[in-house]
Structures are given as structure tokens and as C-alpha cells.
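WARN retry 2 of 3 for item q-0093 after timeout on previous attempt; input resubmitted unchanged.
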Amino acid sequence: WDSPGFPSITVPYDHTRDFFYSGHTGILFLFVLELRNLGYYKLSYACSCCLLYTILVLLTTRVHYSIDVMGALIYAPFLYSFVCSQVIIVDKIFSFPFKLGKIVV
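OK item q-0093 returned
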């Protein structure tokens, strides 16, 4: 991977650099999905451009394999839909003490 005369531009994790899935790609894709959900379409397009640039940099610098990037693009929508389906339940659990406090006061 690295030539003897040139320094490495990636973080050396010994002999392994294979982290499945790419967190860089997954987090940016979650940002795009959330911005679209909130109605910030122009900002989501800008974030999509950042996502494409990040994918290009990750693959050209060999920080991640292409399957790591594709795995993030596949996994992120599933994670997002799961969190969106569970947020109502979590909100009811955490708002219960405040509703109880309003009744008492």
C-alpha cells in the first residue's frame, strides 16, 4: 500500500483497514435522509454533494473498500426507518414524567 519513501495519508491500523461499514458514508447519508424529511431540500442536495465527494475520497485514498461504502448506503435507510418508527414510543416514555408533573401541579 505505502511506498517506502512516502508517508501514509491514512491511519495505519496494523495490517487491517477493513471496517464494515463506512461510518463516514453512513452518517452523511443519514444527514441527507433527515434533511429531506424535515423539508430542507436545498440543504439535502448540498449534503448529497458532500456525500459523493466523501465516497470519492474514501475510495481513492483506499480508506474503505467499495463494499464498505455500498454497505453504508444500504444499511443507513434501514436504520433511519427503524429509528423513525421507534421515536414515537421513546417520546411517550420520556414525556410521561412531564405529563404527570403537569397533572400534579
